[in-house]
Input
Amino acid sequence: MALEFENTDQGVAGTLRNVANGLPPDHITIRGLLKQIGEQGMLFFCIILTIPFLTPIPLPGVSTVFGLLIMLIALGVILNRVPWLPRQLLERRVSSQQLAPVLNRGAQLFSRFERFIRPRWLALTHGATTNRLNGVILFIAGALLILPLPVIPLSNMLPGYAVLFLAVGMLQRDGLFVVLGYLLTIISAVYLGAWVAAAILAGQGISSLINESGAIFLWLMR
Output
């Protein structure tokens, strides 16, 4: 099945509020959340996954899981098909009381700048080759988000915004936001790469930076 990008007439902010208002009282699974999102699909799910990272405070454990999800969605964009997601991940429960405020906070954020989002620079959002390239950059941004670097300022925020702008740009056919996503991905790679290089030169080694990601990845693949 091909992966289609659906433009939402009610806007990102309105859809986030609708999802928040439609949550069950106790909890919801990732599978249920995807069903709640409906036709907006995987790119809109990417937007939801970025909301916890739009602040300077790093979230190392959550960023690993959410980064992996974003990378799998990016593979779906590259291959132009609905991505495979691990069953254990789909059945993972999220508290509605914790999720609803996150969605409403995201709706407030989008309501401030959504008027600036509109279809433009369409060459950057149409065509199989362009979509694959956008998917590759989205994959890289997700990989940067997955890095376990909790002590580094902006380690989640920069790639989080990169994913956000890429997903919004592709979903809303706004090439300007796609370009912003590209730029933030490059900035994130340079910034985090410099920190990793500094850690290696300081003698800390690279293994301590990847142990957490590897353990969580193996747990998700079980």
Q: What stands out?
A: The two ends are 25 Å apart (CA to CA). The CA atoms of residues 6 and 40 lie 6 Å apart. The longest strand covers residues 27-29. Residues 11-221 form one domain.
